[in-house]
Amino acid sequence: MDQQTHLHAGGYGQPSVIINRNLQILKDTFGTMVSRARQRFIQGFLVFSFVLLVLWIATFLYGSFYYSYMPKASFSTPVNYYYRTDCESPTSFLCSYPLANISLMRNKKHVLTLGQPYRISLHLEMPDSPVNREIGMFMIRTTCFSRESRPVANSARSSILRYHSELLRTLGTLLFLPAYLSGAAEQKQVLEVELFSDYTDDPYSPSDTAIIEILSSKVQIYSSHLYIHAHFTGLRYLLFNFPAFSAMVGISSNFVFLSILFLLGYVRQILRFNRKPEQIRAHVLRSEREQNQQDNERNTPEGSTRIRSTNLRQRQNHGHQT
Fold this sequence. Notes:
Shape: elongated
Strand order of the largest sheet: 1-10-5-8
Number of helices: 8
Radius of gyration: 44 Å
Order of helices and strands: HEEEEEHEEHHEEEHHHH
Distance between the termini: 117 Å
Helix content: 40-55%
């Protein structure tokens, strides 16, 4: 009876031990997998953070270079003319030509970048009136002044309304009569006068103001605007005309350079930490032994005598050399 009971107990106990052992193996395997997954996740997160940080620094460096190196591509400002009316003659009302004073400063900074060539043009919106047609050709004089009110550049350009015969004007008036009556269109012409084709500001006396004078007292003008366009060459031409390609090349170059620097620093730290403790301990002991030896030499009479003789010998050598 006891033997049968023992056999039955052993028969039922052996499968339970195997099951417990398998469960323990599964538990250890699952714990190892979770630990490895956590480690991989942390490593991936660190790598992603490192790449994101380097990419952000590379983008910031390229943006800083772009906005510090690239000047403003264009600039425009309205031109408001004024006359002198303090005439001595009672028959004349206008005592001067139309004159405009334009500031080339914005937020206390020069609009024109030193060393950058510009094209400066004047747009005149003029009515197609009999007075303007009778004036014919008129001159536009431009003078740039420095902060000391010294002229640094000047130009004189001529302009005239486009010619239209009486038949063309009549046909155009009849064709656009509804637009003229509703106010959607006007009988006017827009003249573009190139004042400077390749203007480069003087670095020693940059331009602060520009005086535009129309040498005709009878000219009629609706409105006028001054336009300044930069002529980019070399690297600035590539940065302005191909911004996406330039940004990709610049950010990639910065990213590679910064990655190499960070990797070299990381490898250096690894090599420093991987030094054997025995080497570090031997280096420390050697340094302490040398320091103690020097201190003992200073404290003993022989060492003091030796130090004095060495100093005296150095002074004698110095005197002979002098």
